[in-house]
Structures are given as C-alpha cells and as structure tokens.
Amino acid sequence: MVLEFRDAGIYCPAADAYIDPWRPVDRALITHGHSDHARWGHARYLATEAAAPVIRHRLGDIALQTTRYGETHRIGDANISFHPAGHVPGSAQIRVEVGGEVWVASGDYKTTDDGLSEPFEPVRCDTFITESTFGLPIYTWPDEAALTAQINTWWAETRDRGQTAVLGVYALGKAQRVLRMLDPALGPILTHGAVEATNAVMRAQGIVLPDTTHVTPDLDLKPLKGAMVLAPPSALGSPWMRKFGPVSTGFASGWMRLRGVRRRRAADRGFVVSDHADWDGLNAAIAATGASRVFVTHGYTTQFAQWLGEQGYEAGIVQTEYSGESLDDPDPEEAQT
User: In the chain, what are the domain boundaries?
Assistant: First the structure.
C-alpha cells in the first residue's frame, strides 16, 4: 500500500515519512496547525508556507521546511504535494504518488469557501482518507451571509440590553473567520489572549483582520460597553468572564445543529459554524476525487463508512488520535499556547 496505518500515525514506506503523526518520528508531513495534527517532538517537519507561522508559534524552534500548494517533492520513491483543504489558513490535503498509484490524506477539510482559508480543491486519486467529524445527514451548514446576519443581530440585541456579548470560538481558524463576519460599527471587538496571539501571527503573514483589543488584566472596560468578546470555549463560564459584568454568551460550532447542545454548554445562543465539511460537503468531496477506496478517520466513522459502502465504495475505518471539532475538549490551539 502507498500509505500504512501504524501506531505512530499514517506512514508512507516509500518516503519513510508520516502524515500528522501523533508519536515522535523522523519526518512529519503536517496538514495544518491544530495541535491534534501538528505535534511537538518530530525531527523534521514539512508544511505549507501559510501554515508555517502558526506551527512555529505553537511549537517553537523546530526544523520546519515549507512548500507551496501544488509543488511536488520527491522524497525517497514517492512524489508528495500539498493541496488546499479549506479548513483553516494554510491547511492542506497531502497527495502521495508511488509507482503511479495515488493516495490523498485530507486531514481536516471544508468544501465551502469562507473567504479566509484557501478554498478546498478536489484532488484525483485512487484512495482517499477522509475525516467524518460531521458524517451524518443531520449536519448541514447555513450559508455565510445568513450566519453573518445571525451573529451581528445577536450582538446588537445584546448591546441594546446593556450586556456584553461573549462568543466561544476556536482560536485558530474559527475565531478569525467569525471576526471577519462582525460589523465593527456595532461596537468594539475584544479578544482573549489565546485568540489575540493567533490573530497577531496571521496579521504578520499578511492576512487582513478587523481591529481588535486584547483583554489584559489592566484594560479599562468602562469605555468599551456593548463590546463583542471572542474567547476560546473554555473561557465561557470561567472566572475570567466576571470582569465584563452582565453578559450574553454564545457558542459557535457545528455541534449547535444538535438539540440540547446549547443547554449543555450553558450558552444563551448557539451558532452553527464549523471549519469541517458538512454531510453534503463530505459526499461531494469524496465523489470529486474519483477514488474507489475510502478510509474514514475521526468522527462518525462507523456510520459514514457504512454509508460509503452502500454507495459502492470500498470503505474502511482507521483509528487515529485526531479529535476534529470537539464538543467537550479544550480548543486544540489554546491548549498549546
């Protein structure tokens, strides 16, 4: 096989390299900067130019080589290239060709264009490795315009009641995506340290984001009434929130599609925002690859693999240590910063 599934991760024997390994290895090919895919301890790393700044910010002084999208690297007996995954800025699918056979490891991906990440590009292959974080028909995402209107309306209503809106968002990817949806005319936009640190990295690499104010211990909040605060989900309900006085809390996640999840998160509002493909996106992406064999990793693996088998694919399940978009775990970016 072009790729094998080992205890340390997804392995390419022809290149002697691993894709997003979860144990220390000599050569790691990294799809993106979330901590369940980019981990410390490897001897050598290869990632896209756009993903590299966040990876360096999180992992420090590592031996990191960068690549452009579509650039082919000959590593051992394998041809390897990175292609846009649409998940977060710099995220990639990794194409591996050995002896004319092509496999693609998608990492995490999203097929809708959010205006922030490089848009997903289907890559033709024989075998495709897909996530299934939201691999059930119930998961369908609203369009970006409707989502933008929902969030800004909630902010305006919260401000008019004399409260501060606090929205729980992952610090890498989702925070910047939501930030670009916000209407600065409604009020100041404040950020938790984990979010602001990632904003700073992205601004330094040329990604344009609206102005924000970092919430520091000595920040005077009195002139900032009616603000929107972007914070990692773990901050919601924490002592850190007390400084804002009366608040309305929101949570941005694909899990908001499920009834009862908002109550479980103790949030006033839930917004269906995900940086992963929904049901239609997963199926469209797989069909576009032309692959006859599909391996399903993290998410609804059993249900989605069964569905793919019913559609005529040779489908299998792979156990990995990727978490996708978790409902209960801390933000995978915040946990490393």
Answer: 4-138+275-331, 144-271
